[in-house]
Amino acid sequence: MAPALAQAVVDGGLTEPETGSTLSSNLLVNGDFSDGTAGWSFPSTCFSIDPTTLAPNGGSSLLFNNPVTCSHTPIAMNSLKVGGGEAYTFSGQIKTEDFVGENSGAGAMAMLYDFTRSPIFNGTVDWTNFSLTHVTVPAGSTGSVRLQTYDQAVSGSAWFANLSLQEEVPPGLQMFLLYPNYRGLMFSDQSQVASLDLIVTPPAGTSLASLQVEIDALDAGGNIVASQIFAPTAAEFTGTLDLSALSLGTYQVVGKLEDTSGNLLMTQSAYAIVKLDASARAGMNAWIDAANLAHFGDGNPHFVLGIYDTTQYSDLVSYYVPELAAIALAPINMIINYYITNASTQAIAAYTTAMKQFGMTLLPDVSGFYTGSSVFPVGVAKEFGTDDGDTLITDYVSALAGNPGVVGYYVQDEPAVTLQPQTFNQYSLIKAADPAGFNLAVLDRPLDLGFWKDTVDVLGVDPYPINEPSGNDLAEVADWTRAAYQAGHGARPVWTVIQFFQQTVASAWPTQQQLHDMSWMAIVEGATGLFYWEYGVRGLYEIKDPVEHAALYQELINVTTEIKSLEPVLLSPDTAVITANTAVGTVFTKTKVGTDGTRYLFSYNYTASPVTAEFTLAGPATNVLDYDTGTSCAPNTSTTFYGVFQPYQAHIFLVSDSASATPAVCATPTAAASATPTPAATPTGTPKPTRTATPTPTATPTATGSPTATASATASLTPTTTTTATLTATPTATATPGALSVAPANLKFGAQKVGTTSRPRILKVTNASAAPVRFAAMSVSGDFAQTNSCGASLSAHSTCTISVNFQPSAVGKLIGDLPLHDNATNSPQVVNLSGKGNRR
To answer: Is the distance from CB of 367 to CB of 391 less than 8 angstroms?
Structure first.
């Protein structure tokens, strides 16, 4: 079985990059300057057509000369403005001569504002090409091409030529394998019907009605052994192909776009689907199932709880034990360690041997295993006697393939999308060398996710929302996780990296409540694993005070222990538990049912304002337990109950039909800001968050208030030690009239050139009460302006929006506020505004 398994993994998945994409004509107006300066605007006097310095093709060039003498901000702007929702290739040529600035990094650049920019050119550099592919402008945004300085350039000359912005036109047929979704492996005890997401973009001169899609399965001899033809009624649809009649082996699944007469218009790159006997899984060190759950260690599925670390390395098992024992106070089952990258395979073996006693596994970091990489692992290369990246990754992975503690590879850490092709190549080499495991790439550019979905087994994202002491938009964690889940069509696992460090001296460590809320946001949005960055350098290692160090890690212990206690439920399929949620769009939910019939509602508040949500159950219940606080009550009716959420707060509710004594009926609450709002952080010059070494446990539910547990889920029904923010709930017969929320509570604009107007930012105003709210004034202060759809009043259970622009009148940080004066009980609701005025 071993040889068949090796062949299966090598051949599984997308065999070649997608084909058929084309580029549109140049969208820029006079991008090659052949018509002088037509189509370009120049606020300054530093730009001119240079008739003596020609482009490499002999065409015209634009001179940017001596920027310090510019009468205004040194910038040239093309009249083209591209709308969002598309991907582009941005290219051109730049030359510099003695172009220097106050700082060594100053230079000249071209940019698609504000989505990408060329490299920075300074000093003296001859004509150099740049090309930026897959530049995505999100829907609702606008991009413009600008030529300008980076940082403060003071002298010298720069030339620009042959600038081009081209839309990346998708091929007539795009395919994405939905099932089997793990390297194309189709096991005999699972469904034998493959499914693919198919997108048809009619070529010029055709229509959707004039086209058909044919999906064929080919055997090793190239013979068609299964086929299905689809007449698309929509541009995107799911196609299926029944492979149940085929014997075990590898098959190429090819998609063809044809006209209705069967004439071939194009063929898309094939997926390899490998039919395996179910017994083959027993020989696999690690794998991912059709529900996107990772199997490793004992062969069973696990919710991934991982952490980054940066220890030095040794060939001795004993060297690693003390640190791993400290990490193991949290239920960590996977580690990424940057420093181990340059260690010998003997050191890796010692590391994973030490991990085994703690139930941990390793993802070696191979993101630098490319020839020419700035972090190329010279130590490993010396061990294997090669400087060739492809040979090195093959030899390295082959050497580790038999190590049960190595369950996959960390292949990219916040990569540029330009690295995707070489990562795809590396993926094929890793699959060939190691017949089981999973590749993880973590991205910090959510717009790039769609280009990576067939390049790795696991899509990761790493939002870092806690940058300032107030106004932290924790919902970024939810947005990025959701984007990754959607990019993979729900058919690729998503592991989210949660911020566990202090990013700047102006910020703070996340609180336990923030760790809790970010973790559960990611889970609700589809994450089947979480990593925390980081235990080592630039993370917890920097905290030298042992008491503070212990207190910080105790908070992570508390959060991850709670998640681990609910692992059996998290591994179960989503099941409908509620039929209504009065805060849809504000409170997001995921629901499951435990083996004992207990219903679980995982939920979080997406906004920076308190909110109360009423949930309607699909079936009656007698008991609702708040898992975090341990409080228990009976539904208001047999099928409805309320949840009170502070800003960005996550809640876990357990709903049961316990036959024991029924607790008191849940009060009808009103959401109000707590004394310490969930997202607030307390920064100091040296990070010393106010904490106790051992947080005080919250109340534990009584026996009559706890749902009945099965033996396998006993731990999951005991609330863990937490330091949950206090909720303020005021029981009343009805919702408080006039309650009003505004989200977000802070608007932070980026840098904006003085005298110009930013794109609008939107505030959502919600009246969740049963009475209308009447507005008296919305007077914005500072360098900001607003328009709104709210009118003189806002009806009960309604929303309106306020559109705010930033119009800087001076250089530097600018602040203002937008108070809403009204008859609500919490009037005025004040939104803090900030932005930065720039010279350019």
So the answer is: no
Q: What are phi and psi of 390, to 5 degrees?
A: -65, -45
User: 428 CB contacts (<8 Å, ≥6 apart)?
Assistant: 10
Is residue 392 within a helix (H) or strand (E), and if so which, with residue range?
Answer: helix 389-400
- Yes or no: say if 258 and 288 are a contact pair by the CB < 8 Å rule: no
Q: Which helix (H) or strand (E) covers residue 82, if one does?
A: strand 75-83
Q: Which residues of the chain have pLDDT under 70?
A: 1-11, 71, 468-472, 659-663, 667-738, 839-840
Looking up tokens 């909110």 gives 611
Distance in angstroms between the alpha carbons of the first and the last residue of the chain: 64
Helix axes 389-400, 420-433, angle to 10 degrees: 40
604 token code pair: 């979080």
Q: Is 5 helix (H, G, I), strand (E, B) or coil?
A: helix
Residue spans of beta strands (DSSP E) within 599-638: 599-605, 611-617, 623-626, 632-633
Residues 6 or more apart from 686 whose CB is under 8 A from it?
A: none
The alpha carbon of 658 is separated from its chain's Cα centroid by a whole number of angstroms, namely 39
Q: Specify the 3-state DSSP secondary structure of 129.
A: strand
Residue 412 CA to residue 417 CA, distance in Å, equals 11
DSSP 524: H
Predicted model pTM: 0.78
Pairing of strands 224-230, 116-117: unpaired
Which amino acid would we find at residue 147?
Answer: L
The answer to whether 698 touches 628, Cβ cutoff 8 Å, is yes
φ/ψ of 311, rounded to 5, equals: -80, 160
Q: pLDDT per residue over 385-406, tens digit each?
A: 999 999 999 999 999 999 999 9
Strand 301-302 to strand 294-296: parallel, antiparallel, or no bridges (unpaired)? antiparallel
Give, in degrees to the nearest 5, the angle at Cα 583 between 777 and 479: 90
